[in-house]
């Protein structure tokens, strides 16, 4: 097997609490090739923290430790903040939850996407404009010239998220982390946005980490799924093998998904008191 | 309704340009509804026009002495009378508008960016940076403005340039406070995080994303502060620490007229009126601008 694109070993995140440090992520490890990896788990299981730790974006007072964090042969732990900035956006990028909050409200969409490009590359103005237009075209926005002049409040949620994706993909990164990219969107546009992410990832030969609490979604759009619970990876599965999960927590999660042809009187819920930790 | 008005108030503008014009028109309408704001704008506009065209408007030179015409009361020849050296007071006031405008603009140009940057940096980084910068700001805020300006002019030496520097030094803390408060409201927001994860440096985040958002409240505050700046400048001039004679600075003119206040009242009173009118003008304009530009204070108008 070739060297994986991203290697993470024993990620631990701690926050200070009134009774001393509280560990919220307990040693997460995974390898990522040029594939689509899903991370699922309920709220507070550490999915998003894991995503943000990869970019070293967690701020004080969070404390992040890893035994090994290698990206494309570069040891991210050893990089200075300045070198890390060259990785962020350009090599590893992230799409956030809600486009309403993740776009600067007083900047036009065109300027914002151009800004993402300008951070990393020094290009002439006309070239920047051409690239932005091409990018918007790629994320299937009609009439890019008009949209470039709009402000974020003038576009819909789905369009905003597509703009966000354009913004994050324009520097052509190798890894895209999508942290619940559709949770703020209508169900009808969720599929559109995910299809778009999928096309872009596959088309550009990138790696994707899709963070979500929606099992079906992850199974559909990923090759491999990590199930997280209380800051630990409890099970790793091929996306197609989700129904064959062996871990009781994964089984519990799967059982709690409501079905279209529901026959059960009471929907099973997760047993909070159960200790799944090995 | 005229066709222009219909075009400006269209519910469905046909072009972007029309929409922007309509927006400007709507802002102007709500501004015009406040008569004091319009008065303020008129006064400030007059000040600017007078400052630009002072040589054309002034009937005499501001420094030409005529000792045979000393301390003449207002007349058809000298509308506002003459001072103790026989200089025409109207001409001096008109030329004085240039000095006042220069002080106001220079102080705003120097102190607003300093305050904005210090406040934005403090708010953005937080922690120790914030504490140290805000402690310095508080030290400056805790002293009365005029007294601190006096101290600085005394240290730097009297003169117009030093007066401007001294006033600027006393004016920035308010802007730093505003910029910091404004920055705190969005420093943890998602779009700042999004920019950071694009790999933007702190300098870039502050310059491109934080400062523009602090701008509008600072502009309003600067306009509101202009009256205070004019008064401080006049105070310094009155004490002989601002513009030096023979420059026709309004505060200095009042100071010269002080000795004749009972017999020749117009020498001190006329520049006094000028100061009051212009200060009020800036106050009204600032209030009006705040009402129009700050949607949070616009109650369903």
Sum this structure up briefly.
The complex is a heterodimer of chains A (about 280) and B (about 300). Chain A has about 280 residues and is α/β, with parallel strands linked by helices.
Describe what this molecule looks like in 3D.
- The complex is a heterodimer of chains A (278) and B (301).
- Chain A has 278 residues and is α/β, with parallel strands linked by helices.
- Chain A has a domain at 34-41 and 80-255: 3-Layer(aba) Sandwich (Rossmann fold).
- In chain A, 35% of the residues lie in helices and 24% in strands.
- In chain A, strand 1 (6-17) and strand 2 form a beta hairpin.
- In chain A, helix 4 crosses helix 5, helix 5 (125-138) packs across helix 7 (157-169) and helix 7 (157-169) runs parallel beside helix 8 (187-204).
- The model of chain A has no long low-confidence stretch (mean pLDDT 87).
- Chain B has 301 residues and is mostly helical.
- Chain B has one domain: MetI-like fold, CATH 1.10.3720.
- Chain B is 73% helix and 0% strand.
- Chain B is built from 11 helices and no strands.
- In chain B, helix 3 (35-57) crosses helix 11, helix 7 (160-186) runs antiparallel to helix 9 and helix 9 (202-238) packs antiparallel against helix 11 (266-293).
- Chain B is flat.
- The interface between A and B is medium-sized, with 31 and 19 residues.
